[in-house]
Amino acid sequence: MSEVQKFKVTIDNITIEVAPGTTILEAARKIGGEVAPPAMCFYSKLKGSGGKCRTCLVEVSKGSEKDPRPMPKLVASCRTTVMDGMEVKNITSEKVPDARAGVVEFLLLNHPLDCPICDQAGECHLQDLSYEHGREGTRYEFQKRVFKKHDLGPYIQLHMTRCILCYRCVFTADQLTNKRVHGILDRGDHAEIATHIEKALDNDFIGNVIDVCPVGALTDKTFRFKNRVWFTKPVDAHRDCPTCSGEVQLWMRGDEVFRVTARKDEWGEVKENSKGETGWICNECRFEKKHIHDWTIEGPSVINRHSVISQGHYVGITKPKETVQEVIGKEPRLLMDIHSVSQVNKPNIDLSLINGPAHSDDFNHPNTNGKQD
Amino acid sequence: MGIKLLLDKAHVEGIRYFDVYRREGGYRSVEKALKTMSPEAIVEEVKKSGLRGRGGAGFPTGMKWSFIAKPEGVPRHLVCNADESEPGTFKDRYLMEFLPHVLIEGLIISSFALGSNATYIYIRGEYAWIPDILEQAIAEAKANGFLGKNILGTGFDCEIYVQRGAGAYICGEETALIESLEGKRGNPRIKPPFPAIQGLWMRPTVVNNVETLAAVVPIINMGGEEYAKIGVGKSTGTKLISACGNINKPGVYEIDMTISVEEFIYSEEYCGGIANGKRLKACIPGGSSVPILPANLLFKTAKGETRYMNYESLSDGGFATGSMMGSGGFIVLDEDQCVVKHTYTLARFYRHESCGQCSPCREGTGWMEKILKKIDSGKGEMKDIDLLWDIQRRIEGNTICPLGDAAAWPVAAAIRHFRDEFEWHVLNPEESQKRNYGLAHYADAREVVA
I need a surface site. Which of A14, A180, A339, B45 has the fewest CB within 10 A? Predict the structure, then answer.
């Protein structure tokens, strides 16, 4: 067979070649940086996920080489596959930021702002998303929906009030465990994640629903209120586990192991383990092995999400890729940059000639040319 | 009298039963189609007829049928969408209740054309008594050799199954309907793949409205070209309109799409004018989700042309000054009706019926309902009206299925055409609780002309 044909797709002026069947979101993630749309519900390791949260909406300005018509609506990039010659606009689109801001506002309507007491704070995708695309205040002036907290078995607590109904945990329960008792009840904004008549989730791998939850709706009961994630240090470790690969990330403070999670990549998804499988970990590793002697420490984890958990760490921080220059084709002009000659205002004003700090007056009088007598 | 193709025998006594229906010329089209025509010829005939989907979107049926994938060895399915839940629409109920055999007849021909050996009728759960009627009709047809194995000796097998829904509006959306039919939660699927490629049990599936499938019967009987001569332009054939609201004669009417909206409301043959001698304020011409039109834009388009009851004329002017044919749920509001309360009622409906799968619709519908309730109860502020506009704008087009659009359009149209009524509610909170805003400048177009 000849070489597999590749599709050329241009996302925000950056062209990349990908295999047919790749979604726009996956192609954009290959480019990386700001070009990759945010995703709250899509999870590449879970079949059938995505399409629900609408944060990854992008504009397709050219359908393909064969059919160059633009798509009439914004499309969910996580569920739309690329075509040869497709042109996609994400951050360069005029419509996308507005639609995305709308989605973020909708997601936050019923989401409690209890970040100060939420265990997910610091590694919460909704937090990152609203920081980037949200408004400074809310326009919603009604009561938010409230649910009671439920214990799903001895290890997991469901705080439905925080849930954004991404369905990731439903897919996880469906695809990782053999006895699925986990699903959605009701519909609309009163829909809730629930187990079949309050059954406990007792599968060996069910703890992974905590890892896939983008918000703090599913939390680890062995870690709740023990520590803030940014005070703990992530360390790669492994053990000989009969159930799973045993390759995990320990969240430590001093010699104390506060929490055990699967290893995650820069998109917040569970990484592949050394055998090339998705690195889901078992309940025993996650909840029972909380002593440093249980584990063989490999070393500090590489953190490459630009979130608060990378703050204050010592080594192994890789910054997200900067793509702005490629997208707009030139050096970005920075509003807050300090230059001797302002790039933002009139170029003929030499700031070094102004006595003291510059005022708006200095730029407003064209005759004085910014210079004071 | 206009031309009647579907309801012409509706008043024959006992037409619900096979013997009477057969005596009145029923099942002729099945004999013609199965014995003398090939499936491709039937699809071609439907294409020629220009029949458009009667469920709301108005997509050409023949074209939809030609999209169905035909992989070797994979069964195909036809699904009849009888989940008629749009507020104001009750035409399919009438058809199924009084003329069940028309639907069964249409289903047999369509199943033959599409190669479906197992055809399903997904019926709205609230229509509790109709499945019995349909099942009886199916049993009668089967007893007379029109269903089951080897129909009329042609070697074509077909079974029709009736499946009741559980009372969800969202299951009228074709992919949600398929999910529900498979026994799952009625969440719309993300397209593509479209049902024509992967539908019911991942097999190629066509989902059509009850009226669309019933309309196949006259098309086969009279030929596609003859059928296309009825009506005007791309609005061919006849359409069932379920008229309700403040009119003298609510009910289901069959029209041939050449009559004007004015005639439809005021003639004795149809709605018989506004009830109690009141004046017309507004009208929703195609079921609750299409934009509402004030009286002055209802009879005449923005260009001053007469507006007719057909797909093109009703949508003339786009959403700015037009509306849609939709599913034919014709809701008339007289001068005593409050548009704000009316919009609130619709918003409440869509909030209740949103499946909760995608965030703009799940959260946005609830938000709109709360704001409309606030304005309706006299606690609104001016900024709420702009906020409503902003919310509907961000829901529309950003959702998985058209329910988001359906929830956004009524709110958008109400604000577009009746903004002063919303403002009056905000400015006169106490008075608005006692009386209705009245007609203002949406005065009865008839009166202005006279």
Answer: A339
**CATH number of A7-102, picked from 1.10.630.10, 3.40.640.10, 3.90.79.10, 3.10.20.740:** 3.10.20.740
As a whole number of angstroms, the distance between CA B314 and CA B322 comes to 6
Residues B133, B99: Cα–Cα separation, whole Å: 10
Q: Kind of pairing, strands B239-245 and B329-334?
A: parallel
Number of alpha helices (DSSP H) and beta strands (DSSP E) in chain B: 20, 11
CB–CB of B45/B36 below 8 Å?
no
ipTM surpassing 0.90: no
Rounded to whole angstroms, how far apart are CA atoms B433 and A346? Answer: 57
Taking CA–CA distances from A78, the nearest residue in chain B reads B190
- Rounded Cα distance between A85 and B166, Å, is 45
Q: Tell me if A303 sits within 8 A of A263, measured CB to CB.
A: no
Do A99 and B370 lie within an 8 Å CB cutoff?
no
CB-based contact B143:B136 (threshold 8 Å)? no
B18-229: CATH number? 3.40.50.11540
CATH 1.20.1440.230, chain B: domain bounds:
339-434
Cβ-proximal residues to A369 (8 Å cutoff; 6+ apart), any chain: A348, A349
Helix (H, G, I), strand (E, B) or coil at B17: coil
Query: Which residues does chain B have within 8 Å of residue A105's beta carbon, measured at their own beta carbons?
Result: 394
Q: Is B165 on the interface with A (CB under 8 A)?
A: no
Q: How far is B367 from chain A (nearest CA, A)?
A: 8
C-alpha dist (Å) from residue A360 to A340, A365, B159 = 16, 9, 80
Q: How much is the average pLDDT of B299-308?
A: 88
Mutual angle of helices B91-98 and B130-143, in 10-degree steps: 40
The residue of B189, B362, B399 whose CB has the most chain A CBs within 10 angstroms, and thus the best one to mutate to test that interface, is B362
Sequence-separated (6 or more) residues with CB below 8 Å from residue B4 = B238, B254
**CA–CA distance from A331 to each of A279, A285, B331 (Å)?**
39, 47, 58
- The span from the first CA to the last CA of chain B, in angstroms, equals 26
Query: Least CB-CB distance to A51: which of B168, B190, B395?
Result: B190
Say which residues have a Cβ less than 8 Å from residue B128's Cβ, sequence separation at least 6: none
Contact yes or no for B293/B282 (Cβ under 8 A): yes
Is the pLDDT at B440 greater than 70? The verdict is no
3-state secondary structure of A252: strand
In total, the C-beta contacts within 8 angstroms joining chain A to chain B are 91
Highest CATH level, class, for A141-220: alpha beta
Domain boundaries defined on chain A: 7-102, 141-220, 229-310, 333-373
Average pLDDT by stretches of 10, chain A with 373 residues: 77 92 92 89 91 93 90 92 92 91 93 91 89 88 90 89 92 83 86 78 85 93 89 90 90 91 88 88 92 90 68 60 80 60 59 69 58 46
**pLDDT above 70 for B246:** yes
**B107-122 in b/e burial notation, b at 16+ Cβ within 10 A?**
bbbbbbbbbbebbbbb
- The string of pLDDT tens digits covering residues B23-77 is 998 899 999 999 999 999 999 999 999 999 998 888 999 999 999 999 888 999 9
Interface contact flag, B363 A109, Cβ < 8 Å: yes
As a CATH number, domain B339-434 is 1.20.1440.230
The CATH T-level fold of domain B235-334 is: Ubiquitin-like (UB roll) (3.10.20)
CA distance B394 to B199: 29
